[in-house]
Design a protein that fits this description.
about 300 residues; alpha+beta; Cyclophilin; 2 domains; about 15% helix; globular
Length: about 300
């Protein structure tokens, strides 16, 4: 049985797949990879199914030993990875020989890097998913972030390493956006036109308190016009919620499943992966688009991910 030895866990490293869908009525958010596009591509590079479990590292990567060797790929942000002190390329499949060690440092670009291993990381599924749900302490590896000394099991593998990498065209198309496209939220009309103009024309800074539950923003306050209270209702991934005080929060992968604050907008699905690469102090803006554009953008993204031109 092949394993990964965690020599150093990094700042916050968890086992994630594409999450558990359909359990919102039970109060369970999807969790899963914060940048699902990067995880999907990383798995493709090593020959896994797109939804296989990998490691999600945040801001500072870990150090991992492979006593039996493994076929690996790194996807997402550049964490300056080295394999036995030699540079390990991002977006490229490569082989770790038995006894070699992969070391990652602080991020040089976005927020998260994904380590995908041929065969996937094997953990006990919770509600059909391997993803770690930190708030509830369920899923993943013992329901928590990794610690020094943890031993992770790798699934069955052919141990064949094909030379493949992400195409230049796909890499360009997948660059994270800092201008996030949004559609109007269900309570868009609770906000006067002047307030909506402020929201769309202002720059916001990602707050230090940001986490997998929500991306808190600092900047122009957004005040609603109505004095009425909103009855708690279901909320969606990417909803831009405006609590008391008027500073928006983008609901993220471990969001609460219901909420009572008005939603002025919703980030479109094609830009969810960009949310996963936002770091504290990053500056973003919002661009309003219609539903037809949102749908077309997602179709374009999915067509790229399914195309034969994705990898070369």
């Amino acid at each position: 049985m092949d394993v990964i030895l965690v020599r150093e866990p990094g700042l916050f490293t968890t086992v994630q797949d594409l999450g558990r869908q359909g359990f919102g009525p039970m109060g369970v958010s999807p969790s899963g990879a914060a940048d699902a596009v990067s995880l999907r591509v990383g798995n493709r590079l090593v020959g896994n199914a797109e939804g296989a479990a990998g490691l999600e590292m945040t801001l500072l990567g870990g150090t991992f030993a492979f006593p039996d060797g493994a076929v690996l790929a790194l996807a997402g942000s550049d964490f300056g990875a080295t394999l036995d002190a030699k540079s390990a390329q991002l977006w490229t499949a490569f082989e770790a020989k038995p006894g070699q060690t992969l070391k990652l440092g602080p991020t040089q670009t976005g927020a998260r890097c994904y380590l995908c291993v041929q065969g996937g990381i094997q953990v006990k599924a919770f509600l059909g998913s391997a993803s770690t749900h930190i708030l509830s302490g369920l899923g993943g590896f013992q329901g928590r972030a990794l610690r020094k000394g943890d031993v992770l099991t790798i699934g069955a593998t052919s141990r064949s390493a094909r030379e493949r990498r992400l195409s230049a065209r796909a890499l360009k198309e997948m660059q994270p956006r800092k201008v996030l496209r949004v559609t109007p939220g269900p309570q868009d009309d609770w906000f006067p036109e002047a307030t909506r103009r402020v929201f769309y024309e202002s720059a916001y800074r990602v707050a230090e308190e940001t986490n997998r539950m929500g991306i808190r923003l600092q900047g122009a306050s957004v005040a609603k016009a109505t004095e009425g209270e909103l009855t708690s209702e279901g909320v969606s991934l990417g909803a831009v919620q405006v609590p008391e005080g008027g500073l928006p929060i983008i609901l993220f992968v471990e969001q609460q499943t219901t909420g009572g604050y008005p939603k002025i907008a919703n980030v479109i699905s094609a830009d969810f992966h960009s949310l996963g690469q936002l770091r504290p102090r990053d500056e973003i803006r919002f661009e309003r688009v219609d539903f037809a554009t949102a749908r077309a953008s997602l179709i374009k993204q999915e067509n790229l991910l399914a195309s034969d031109d994705l990898l070369v």
